[in-house]
Amino acid sequence: MSKDLLVTIDSEGPLPGQLRTGGRPARVELARFAELAERNATSRDYERVILVGDGEALEQHGFAFATAAREGGFTHVRLDTSARRLTQAQQVRAVVMAGVNEFSVGLHGDCAELHDQLSGRPGDFAKVQTCLERLSKHEVRVVVDTIVTTANLAALAQIVELAIAKGASRVALWSYLPAEDTPETRALIVSLDALIPALRPAIARCREAEVEVVVRHVPACLLGDARDILDNTRPDALDGVRPGRPLAQFNCLHEAKCEHAEACLGLHHAYVNAHGWELERLQPTPRVRPWRERDRSVERTTGGAAGPRGHASWLALLGPHAERVAGVSLTRTEARYPMQMPDGTRFVLVLSARDDDARTFIQSASFNLAYTDVEGPAQERAIATFVEPVLRTIAANDDGSLCLDAKA
Ligand code: SF4
């Protein structure tokens, strides 16, 4: 359980880490939040509440949410809204008086043209500047979120400089993770070979200026001595994850042998769709602790045909390839088949409920099919060649009679 709680007052503003508003409207009613806040005053389950909103509901109830948060014993009350709400000195003072002591502000360019294009809000850059100036007059914490894309990568140093100059308490550098994987959003995803060299001086500059800096959604193994600033924490959400908005999916094919896999998310699927699994670029740190497979129910057998009872229909999906798997394990959300290649490379073939937005090699009627947990010498292309006929057989055999629950 996180110590941070995300509360969506309305869906007019982008969620933290997103450039723009997306998803269908969803909101938390004031009464529901007030109830939770009252409990929190005693339980102290949460230390921080992040109030997200930019629409009518924020206008009408924003102060009441802040008051409820203050009374609920949250040490940190953060408001994540658009800069246009915080350009008047009086407005800012009133919000601070209501109990908000942290603000997150998106700054994605060093000039109006770039920032406004990325945020999709003409005139927003000027408002961000004014907002930051207003906030600098108060004893509050200001988090500047910068989402690094192919469009603003070249300007990253100047953006960070601007954030520092405007009084940022903390700079969060997000590797762009699109809410929707489309050709347009995919083109904005920065490849790791361009991202890492740009992040290094930006991180160094923040440290030099004694401004806290974190990076998000970046593989830990590429951060060198900056690994400690990787922040992949996610707040809990109080009914606030917008319905219909898929949670981002992450994987690393090295996770079985990497010591950092528990803290590092690896690559998000939209990244993989754009730039591949980066098997050669990622640098797993050999494990000193044993790898605990996420699925503890693996039933290894001496061959597919002698598969565990009750799992026969899942093995039948593989047709003749069932002979090549070491068994099948089933959970509510996944079917996992450990496999081994002739050169000794091992990996796990994974079936999960069909999700058109998730990264996958191939889809069948009911499933997304992929592989993970690679251990051994084979390169990405060789594994893909080896596994492809198996995946195609599963897709051909899936008549829709088997199903898995979607991941929460
Ligand atoms: S090898 Fe994979 S799990 Fe390990 S640090 Fe790199 S990206 Fe993360």
Task: Provide a compact summary of the structure.
The protein is α/β, with parallel strands linked by helices and 408 residues long. It has helices at 30-43, 56-71, 89-97, 112-119, 124-135, 156-165, 183-186, 192-208, 269-275, 312-316, 380-397, and strands at 4-8, 48-52, 76-80, 102-106, 141-148, 170-175, 212-216, 236-237, 250-251, 267-268, 329-330, 334-340, 346-353, 362-363, 367-375.
Give a verbal description of the structure.
It is built from 11 helices and 15 strands. Helices cover 29% and strands 18% of the residues. The protein is globular. Helix 3 links the parallel strand 3 and strand 4. The protein has 2 domains: 4-245, Aldolase class I (TIM Barrel, Alpha-Beta Barrel); 293-397, no CATH class. An 8-stranded parallel beta sheet has the order 7-6-5-4-3-2-1-8, covered by helices on one side. The protein is of the alpha/beta class and 408 residues long. The structure holds iron/sulfur cluster. Iron/sulfur cluster binds at residues 219-221, 252, 254-255, 258, 260-261, 264, 266, 282, 284.
